[in-house]
Amino acid sequence: MSALPPVDVTGVDVMAVANPLRCRSWPDRAVPSRVVGRGPGPWTCETRGMAEPTPHTPLTDLLVRVHDHFLPHTEGEVAAFAQAVGGVDADDFGLALTTVDGHTYSVGQDERSFAIQSISKAFTYAIALTDSGFEAVDAVIDVEPSGEAFNEISLQEGTGRPSNALINAGAIAATSLVAGSSSNPHDEGSVARGDTRRDRLVRGYSRMAGRALEVDEEVLAFEREDGDRNLALAHLMRSFDLVTEAPEAVADDYFAACSILVTVRDLSMMAALLATGGVHPQTGERVLDEAVVERVLGVMSTCGMYDDAGEWMVRVGLPAKSGVGGGILVVVPGQAGFAVYSPRLDRHGNSERGVLACEALSAQLDLHLMHGVREPHSAVRVTYPVTAVPSGVRRPPAAATVLERVGHRGRVIEVQGALTFGAAESVMRELCSLQEVDAVLLDVRRVTVVPQFAREGLAAVARGMADAGRVLVLVDDPDRGLAGDAVRVVARRRVGVEAVENLLLERHGGPGLDLEEVEVGDVGVVSTLDAADAKALHARMESRHYAAGEVVIREGDPFVGIHLITSGTVETTSGAAGAAGDEQDVADPTTRGPELRRLAVLGPGHSFGEFGLVGDGRHAATVTAREELQTWLLSPEVLRQLEVEDSGLALRLWQAITREAFTRVRAQMEELAAAAAHAG
Amino acid sequence: MSALPPVDVTGVDVMAVANPLRCRSWPDRAVPSRVVGRGPGPWTCETRGMAEPTPHTPLTDLLVRVHDHFLPHTEGEVAAFAQAVGGVDADDFGLALTTVDGHTYSVGQDERSFAIQSISKAFTYAIALTDSGFEAVDAVIDVEPSGEAFNEISLQEGTGRPSNALINAGAIAATSLVAGSSSNPHDEGSVARGDTRRDRLVRGYSRMAGRALEVDEEVLAFEREDGDRNLALAHLMRSFDLVTEAPEAVADDYFAACSILVTVRDLSMMAALLATGGVHPQTGERVLDEAVVERVLGVMSTCGMYDDAGEWMVRVGLPAKSGVGGGILVVVPGQAGFAVYSPRLDRHGNSERGVLACEALSAQLDLHLMHGVREPHSAVRVTYPVTAVPSGVRRPPAAATVLERVGHRGRVIEVQGALTFGAAESVMRELCSLQEVDAVLLDVRRVTVVPQFAREGLAAVARGMADAGRVLVLVDDPDRGLAGDAVRVVARRRVGVEAVENLLLERHGGPGLDLEEVEVGDVGVVSTLDAADAKALHARMESRHYAAGEVVIREGDPFVGIHLITSGTVETTSGAAGAAGDEQDVADPTTRGPELRRLAVLGPGHSFGEFGLVGDGRHAATVTAREELQTWLLSPEVLRQLEVEDSGLALRLWQAITREAFTRVRAQMEELAAAAAHAG
């Protein structure tokens, strides 16, 4: 690998770079070599099998730049097989990248078919591990780099065991461990089609690529003709009992696997499948076990690039496999797969231009496993006292005072991202370091991935907190079962905050905060009037009783009056279509159904119904008794009578209602400002 | 490496596992072997040099479990040097893990000193690369796995070049490339102390460990005595001109480096320094260049474990380096470093028990590079129309109607986490796929890491959008300069939303929405009265004018009346201490200063001052004219006169004010519910 001058992108207007992106809907080579344009345009390729096309993005431009930069680099020689078979254009150069969610970007000769050759070894190894199991495969094939060239006759001293599955000997041994009967060309009539090992290989590769791949019979014929070294290896391994079937048959299936035709887009899809841990990026189907993929990638890391493996790990830093057909397949675990096709090879048998392009892509996209991006140190997004996000339950003033005093003993901790080891450790450390705390509301709704360590660790932390007299409540989708049964889960933060507020009041509140019953003179607007006015008003009001669950006011009702609660609590909810709710995850509010949203919980000392005064004179929320409820009602009729019979009291009442209203406006503005700060 | 039975943690109450954690404040070996306890307790060790101690967490318990699980495993032999020098307890077993933010967890013999031996090779290589540069080092030392044992006399055919820097030959060559004069033991008087290569090495290692390390003279004497093979290598390399100095002197510095004493806590700190890319985890000081660290880790990945490198990558999957002293150092790039000490070695010269413990830790903590955790597919946290998060600017009803109709053409996209390649690609794809959009507010305040590709890609997307007539605005800390000068950055979402609302009104609003001036009869509460009432009220009001920037009402002023705006706009702000604001990042509100918070922007047709009616009769917000302002004032005196002189109008006015107030309460409740949904 020669030293690569870095692709300088600083100061380059990337959108202005011309775009030779190949589009599958256009005839090969008919693509204008200089399409200048920006934003989604006619060069946007449809992603295979997906409804949503892959748009033109800066990644498109980067692929174009890398492609153009290395296009003039024409060192190296086309492999002997390709020269013999013909039909290979030595100048071909294609790049493709597929994301783990199945979007493929490609450029250059991205639909040109070529022989997969040694890249097949990674997939044959995966299928052998799947079909025969790790133990049987490991008994026959080691996982150490051989440090030798791809076609060395190299078997380990004594055992005859191939060093790894990505050299010829190891791949032949792996082929013999793929399920299916032999497809011996000398005995083709003896096996039913569909049962053969060769079919198993072709179908397996096709499933990974997401389309039906085929063996190129011309390439296969060449490989058979030129197969002496590989037949020698097969025979040698049978002499060690590592291969138990007819060496010719096993070698022939190996030749067939090497002769399968792929495009660089196929390879990038197969690489992306390895990046997901074995799930097909487009269909979501699990094609390979995660353990199999992990093993294959581990071996690719040290053995994938022949005797260039160390240099590759230093310069590109990603698991990869190359083939003498001119392809290189590269895996970015968890993120993407990419592939390059350029048939001229370097002295190691790797695509000369391909290696350069891979190095440039790894550097430009910052993909080197040993560099990577330093993860944020902490998964803790923000932590604040529960008082910063009140539950919306309106409580008596004494209770509010207590919460103001001890609110810091109830903490909300919001956590985000993937709880990989470092992130999980930071969360646990935060939880285990808390001082002067009664309850923690751990909001994990933004957590995306929860590995075993994080799951068990959170459960353990919860138990430890419980033993220390502390309460841990998760805000999460209850179906996710993130931390086991030991931890209470609530779906909404407000519900959790209410529980924490109740706990704090219970522990620190002292007596008299649970207002079970109040006099009507102590309720809402009446409590702000002088004694005579309050008494006069009381005399005009009617007492009302409701059972738990009973609807007191229904959304859309005409104004029924103002209720003053003397005992019990109510919940106000609204089902206004199209408005944002706190019951659901947020996506596009326009897609939301008419789910009910809880607006507030009100208890003794509070009033409701004032909204009926507004706008069209209809109530805009439904009010439901949460338990047995007693109220005093100030009806519209009474309000009208009052204007006529006692205009002084009427004026003072309306002034009091106005004050009450603006007190709420003011408090809500505070809450909104706080919410804006917390939410961003 | 033998097959490892998995450490079964399912169903184990990890908090109940006994805790033999070594604490530095307790005498060695005096730690009770079974301390049962939970939560922070006396076994919490102080993290060296840090104010904040590392608490007891589930990670502590996991280390204890792994330690206890392998404690009975006593296979293998102590190295010859250790047997000869003596003082090594073959049963010693210590584990330590250090996070990238410098918290160390440890268990067992975590303060026992032992010779660093070959682990030094990784750090000598790093120092050689730093002192002599990549070119000079690469000219002498290759980066390929040798596939041979640690002490092979292995130099590449023809060139005599060592295969890599982590075998003896390579490490001796690397030592010769460390700055400083020779510290030839045969000529010690000839160089001043402080200038020698040996000092450079000892100081370099010490800086990485964060404490002064020392050479063990007994071990050094043994290495010199037993140094024939290494002296042979040094001489051989001089014969190839790869080593240009006196071979004895170079070899002696190499021996000295191998004889430096470390603890397993030291090694875990040094590993964590490599995990951060060269920044000291505790001091934040940059000790090594990122490129040097990337190179060292790349070579460790394929060459760190002698001829067990392939198996190690398959089973543990992390860059590592072992030493015959019994230590193994393991790096989890970006997350942590850990180390093991157990002096009995396997046939490869690696710590027998150490390898098993490393494999268990990698598996339990899900650290294997080829497995890892699949990152979330998208960095896009949530996307919604701007109408879901109104700016707080109160606009005329016609404008509100327009925004309702075209609000979806202004999108807010919130992005979070590290914009690694896959994450950045998903954001750009989202931005490039948008249809029917005029403006996008990209809220990147939760983005933690922005590599080059993401930075340049966002700038390119912004340019592409601008050319397509679209506007991209970032919500971010303006000092971060995330996407260059091309993109407008606002610090607060509200400000960005206001800009997007203005743009949408400008493009889709038609004429008449920019209410430059209105009649007082069209303002706020007056507009809801009938014509006669409005006229009567108008006659009692006073006209007021204010210059841009002038304060109309100051927070704390006694009630000055209700202002009705006929032209110009005002901003209301509040400086209430201790309350949450939207100007700052959210942390602990109790730590906040009294910064001003913007509550609302009001324009023609709106009124302000009503809050002075509330509570103690003082205004709770400051109102400032944003531009030249004209209002009509309804003073407290007029309100009082009205009660006496026209009680009917007074009552209707107060009723109107009440309706207006509850309209705002209702709208704010909707906003709060939406904010709760968006914020979580």
TrEMBL record, chains A, B:
Coiled coil (residue ranges): none
SUPFAM superfamilies reported in the protein's UniProt record: beta-lactamase/transpeptidase-like, cAMP-binding domain-like
Known EC number: 3.5.1.2
Catalytic reaction(s) noted: L-glutamine + H2O = L-glutamate + NH4(+)
Entries under CDD domains matching the protein: CAP_ED (cd00038)
Example GO biological process: glutamate biosynthetic process
Keyword entries, A-Z: Acetylation, Hydrolase
Domain STAS positions: 412-475
Assembly behavior: Homotetramer.
Family classification: Belongs to the glutaminase family.
This protein's name: Glutaminase
